[in-house]
Amino acid sequence: QVQLVESGGGLVQPGGSLRLSCAASGITFSIYIMGWYRQAPGKQRELVAAITSSGSTNYADSVNGRFTISRENAKNTAYLQMNSLKPEDTAVYYCNARLMAVGYWGQGTQVTVSS
Question: H/E element holding 104?
Fold first, then answer.
């Protein structure tokens, strides 16, 4: 049974930081592309960042330079370090594991940026 469990969300003031974690089980984690997506109220889910099995990364323009995606294969865990958070970063953040046409989602973690 595949499970992706996100953690680390919460309420933070503008300019603050959070680190999200995604712990995976039931898959050969090291060969999967890991991604973080987010969905704000009334908006479509969008890709925030992704990291390949070899460590190549890509970011949405809106977070480039502020967010960093990483992975620790020995712990079957992916991370999203979020710095200089803005109110527009408020959303539910989802972890995704993808291998060719097969993909899995976590349940999501809420991130709220507000003073």
Answer: strand 102-105
* Pairing mode of beta strands 109-113, 10-12: parallel
Strand partners, 104: 97
DSSP H or E stretch at residue 80: strand 77-82
pLDDT (tens digit per residue) in 20-73:
999 999 999 999 999 999 999 999 999 999 999 999 999 999 999 999 999 999
Strand 18-25 and strand 3-7: the pairing is antiparallel
The SS3 call for residue 7 is strand
In sequence order, which ranges of the chain are alpha helices (DSSP H)? none
User: CA-CA distances (angstroms) from residue 99 to 11, 29, 52, 72, 108?
Assistant: 32, 10, 10, 17, 20
Give the distance, in angstroms, between the CA of residue 27 and the centroid of all CA atoms in the same chain.
17
